[in-house]
Amino acid sequence: MIIKGGSVMDAPSQSGTPTILLHKGDLPADVTFTGSVAVDSETQGLDLNRDRLCVVQLSGGDGVCHLVQIAKGQAEAPNLKALMEDPAVVKIFHYARFDMAALKKGLGIDCGPVYCTKIASRLVRTYTDGHGLKDVVRELVGVDLDKQQQSSDWARDTLSPAQQGYAANDVLYLHRVRAQLDAMIAREGRQELLRACLDFLPTRVALDLAGWGEVDIFRH
Ligand code: MN
User: Fold this and answer.
1) By C-alpha distance, which of 26, 190, 178 is closest to 109?
2) pLDDT in the model for residue 150
């Protein structure tokens, strides 16, 4: 087990025991990712004008999860920003639209390039309405995620072991989900449609933050 930069706890998973590393304020400069990184965030609630960014979770798909706690009033995280804007590292989200907006609003970060497992799922798993992370991970990875801590106080100074485990679970399986979805997308020949949707995400986020959040501008 790797122990660095704070407390470590274990959470159950099918593929061994994940390592959780806690950081305050920013990702340490010596933490690097190659190729892609799975990212999620926790906020105080779902209204970006009211609810601040509290935690950013990152994993390289290797069973290690970095949890970065963002303080109240904090407006910058230079190492996190450099990673999230690094053109050589794909950021894998589930429902990127919300996390990208939260990172932009809270820390002035323009994420890119990005992959969204929810968009890919909607484009190819047309046999189901279940596109939540729990549904997707259960079907494509065979792991049953515990979502009990989803609604909890992410702004607290000390995250509980249950909160840490929940936060980690939201990024630990995204690499495997992406691989499964990419295979299905390729099988159905929808790579270009997926690419175009992912390329539009920054614009969708800009619309959300500028006041068109509840409006579908393509609608009749
Ligand atoms: Mn989450």
Assistant:
1) 26
2) 79
Span from the CA of 140 to the centroid of ligand 1 (angstroms): 18
Provide the CATH topology of domain 2-212. Nucleotidyltransferase; domain 5 (3.30.420)
Whole-model pTM: value is 0.92
Tell me how far apart the alpha carbons of residues 16 and 169 are, in angstroms, rounded to a whole number.
13
CA of 176 to the centre of ligand 1 (A): 17
Helix axes 174-187, 133-140, angle to 10 degrees: 70
Residue pLDDT, tens place only, 123-178: 999 999 999 999 999 999 999 998 887 789 999 999 999 999 999 999 999 999 99
Per-domain residue ranges of the chain: 2-212
- Cα-to-centroid distance, 61 and ligand 1 (Å): 16
CA of 41 to the centre of ligand 1 (A): 6
Give me ligand 1 centre to Cα 95, in Å: 10
Q: What is the mean pLDDT of residues 71-78?
A: 97
